């Protein structure tokens, strides 16, 4: 073998060893904070490549000589498994909005209130999803989507994997107190919208109910602040709207009536929750247990719960 051939062979050996070493290195995803930042940066980068008609629309409302600020509302981010807002989804939301406002000053976030839907250009949604058994450590997938409110088109969508690293998945007060898992067609539409690729249409069922979602979130915020009487009034207001009959609304009526000691009204509200679950042919009900025991808890105060999700079927009518 010539010197040149030996040199080339040695180079191949070095390259092969490097590739083998790289394959052996831990390829677990980055920590949650970095993964959330990466997804946020990718989301914003995509908005700089908007479809031509959206660029023209944005230019038409921009004042001469000024950089248009992009107003955004956030429908609070969710855990896709349960449909719940948790401490972890709240942390994701804060991380994303904090980075967008600090690093990219063209963004302006407005509270998720019905009047702001006409002021905002974009709707931001986000989800956390558990990724089963692909890595040595527990892994979550972060998904973010930015939807143009007037057209319902998703203008940017970004995803990243993150190590769970002990994130707190405790549900917020409303979801903790709810007797059912709040996953209906609206929540499923939220999840589909957040997974929709840029240029695609957001879920129409969900988008038609964004205004109702803003009212529901206002009521839920009141509930989480233990302002139960005000929350009850707001849930009733939501229910009076055409798109207000949702599991979140009916469950809110139930738990606020429970907190206010209105047993009869709570029972009526829960009956409607069950009926709507039958209509969707699916109802996830929480079962409460005594701590460290398999015995059902007799007290109304929730201590710990295991959640069962099953196909809910209405009773078969008995022939006359």
Please characterize this protein's 3D structure.
By secondary structure, this protein is an alpha/beta fold. It folds into 3 domains: 32-58 and 66-171 and 181-195, Rossmann fold (3-Layer(aba) Sandwich); 209-280, Serine Threonine Protein Phosphatase 5, Tetratricopeptide repeat (Alpha Horseshoe); 282-313, no CATH class. The chain has 11 helices and 8 strands. The strands form 2 sheets. Strands 1, 2, 3, 4, 5 and 6 form a 6-stranded mixed β-sheet that branches. A two-stranded antiparallel sheet has the order 7-8. Helix 2 (32-47) crosses helix 4, helix 8 (210-224) runs antiparallel to helix 9 and helix 8 (210-224) runs parallel beside helix 10 (247-259). The model is unreliable at 10-26, 52-56, 58-62 and 299-320 (pLDDT under 50).
H and E order = HHHEEHEEEEHHHHHHHEE
The overall number of domains is 3
CATH class of the largest domain: Alpha Beta
Q: Rg, please?
A: 24 Å
Shape: globular
Described by its quaternary structure, the protein is: single chain
Please state the average pLDDT score. Answer: 81
Helical coverage, percent range? 40-55%
Give the tally of β-strands: 8
CATH fold-level topology of the largest domain: Rossmann fold
Class derived from helix and strand content: alpha/beta
CATH architectural category of the largest domain: 3-Layer(aba) Sandwich
Annotation field: number of helices: 11
Instruction: Give a quick account of the main beta sheet: strands, pairing sense, barrel closure.
Output: 6 strands, mixed
Low-confidence stretches: 10-26, 52-56, 58-62, 299-320
Please report the distance between the alpha carbons of the first and last residues. 95 Å
Strand content: 15-25%
């Amino acid at each position: 073998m010539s010197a040149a051939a030996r040199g080339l062979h040695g180079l191949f050996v070095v390259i092969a060893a490097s590739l083998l070493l790289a394959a052996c290195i831990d390829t677990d995803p980055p920590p949650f904070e970095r993964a959330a930042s990466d997804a946020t940066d990718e989301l914003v980068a995509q908005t700089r490549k908007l479809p031509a008609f959206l660029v023209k629309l944005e230019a038409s409302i921009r004042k001469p000589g000024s950089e248009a600020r992009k107003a955004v509302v956030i429908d609070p981010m969710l855990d896709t498994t349960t449909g719940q807002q948790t401490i972890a989804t709240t942390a994701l939301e804060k991380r994303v909005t904090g980075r967008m406002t600090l690093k990219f000053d063209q963004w302006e976030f407005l509270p998720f209130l019905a009047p702001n839907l006409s002021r905002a250009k974009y709707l931001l949604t986000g989800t956390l999803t558990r990724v089963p058994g692909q890595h040595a450590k527990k892994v979550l997938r972060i998904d973010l989507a930015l939807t143009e409110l007037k057209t319902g088109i998703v203008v940017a969508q970004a995803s990243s994997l993150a190590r769970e690293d002990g994130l707190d998945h405790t549900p917020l007060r409303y979801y903790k107190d709810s007797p059912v898992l709040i996953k209906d067609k609206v929540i499923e539409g939220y999840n589909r919208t957040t997974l929709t690729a840029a240029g695609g249409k957001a879920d129409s069922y969900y988008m038609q109910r964004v205004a109702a979602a803003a009212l529901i979130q206002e009521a839920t915020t009141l509930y989480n602040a233990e302002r139960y009487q005000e929350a009850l009034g707001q849930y009733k207001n939501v229910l009076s709207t055409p798109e207000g009959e949702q599991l979140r609304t009916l469950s809110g009526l139930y738990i606020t009536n429970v907190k206010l000691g209105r047993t009869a009204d709570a029972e009526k509200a829960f009956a409607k929750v069950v009926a709507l679950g039958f209509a969707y042919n699916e109802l996830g009900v929480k079962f409460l247990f005594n701590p460290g025991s398999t015995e059902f808890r007799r007290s109304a105060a929730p201590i710990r719960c295991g959640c069962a999700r099953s196909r809910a079927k209405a009773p078969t009518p008995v022939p006359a």
